[in-house]
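Posted in: Structural Biology > Protein-Ligand Complexes

Title: Requesting predicted complex, pyridoxal-5'-phosphate in pocket

I'd be grateful if someone could produce the 3D structure tokens for the following input. Sequence and ligand are given below.
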Amino acid sequence: MKQIRTVHDLAVRGAVPAFNEPLHVGRPNLATRDDFMRLTQEIYERRWLTNNGPLVQEFESAVCRRLGVRHCVAMCNGTVALEIAIRALGLTGEVILPSWTFVASAHALHWQALTPVFADIDPSTHNIDPDAVRRLITPRTSGILGVHLWGRPAPVDDLQSIADEFGLQLLFDAAHAFDCSLGARTVGTFGRCEVLSFHATKVLNSMEGGAVVTQDSELADAMRLMRNFGFRGYDDVAYPGTNGKMVEVCAAMGLVNLASLDEFVTCNRQNYEAYSDAFSNLSGASVLKFSPADRSNFHYVVVELDDEFAHKRDEIVSALHAENVLARRYFWPGCHKMSPYRELQPSASLWLERTEAVSRKVVVLPTGPSVSLSDIEIISDVVRVVLTES
Ligand SMILES: *Cc1c(COP(=O)(O)O)cnc(C)c1O
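-- Reply #1 --
Done. Output follows.
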């Protein structure tokens, strides 16, 4: 692998790329193949492929134990899990959420014929700002959808006070935050319920998959019906449900990966620290910090440029891509600037100033077991060269 010392070493200038194989953000974390194969053999022998099979039940129990929550309702993906949670909570009218999130958070609301109302963030944490939420409450507001962005818990206590004061439902999109905590309190236990994603790119993957976790038995029962067309028994339909079921082969993947989760997180933490060290010597950019009091999965390495260097963001992304480092600008430019929200709510920019400022200066770098410490040196060098040479 090549070292990057000057702008002339950059592949964008015609030099050879630093990496032969692409380094992806969100490359799947995979446990040993043998364990997965053993479970898929068992699926074959049982001929029980879906419809609340034994592996789905085992996966749900394993998630409950890991997070210390009472109920886990596994689903086919996180987006459908969000929609089912939204339905089960009976949300109507407007729901307040951050714009600075993956667009599925907003789409799940829109798809259920609700209006997502976008609140600004606290730029120091990238999470929704409770004061901004307060300002957006109207008589049509029925709920708040918090997002634990990058695995950092949203301000759950402030949001809960607002929800209590105004009689709103509070739920969380915890797609980034599996195995994270706020102090001693684990993500999964906040609000009425929390929604997980086990998509291939997440820290824990079941290929595709998701779940709603909750402490509320009635809510869990309602969601179990909703994910299976509302069937209470043979021929007995109690609810207008959909098909949100997780299949056995996905549960098998989730189970084996859950058994290796500590290894993935250890590796992520080492990478995160290496990136943080490399960037601490570099002026113009820093790695977003987590609170040492909280537990993080360190699945996202978020680099934030200083305001004076924000104009270099796209140049950094292009230089990294040229080296075969597939860094990403997510969640640029913010949900409110994506269709259909930019057409439906064209003035949202007026109260999303901090979201827009942050969205212009963030780059997410690859991590996980396929990224080595020497890769991180090279990746940091590319960023340094672009920042220091004009
Ligand atoms: C990944 C993700 C989702 C959607 O999950 P899927 O399982 O891909 O449907 C929702 N919200 C956030 C914040 C996500 O990152």
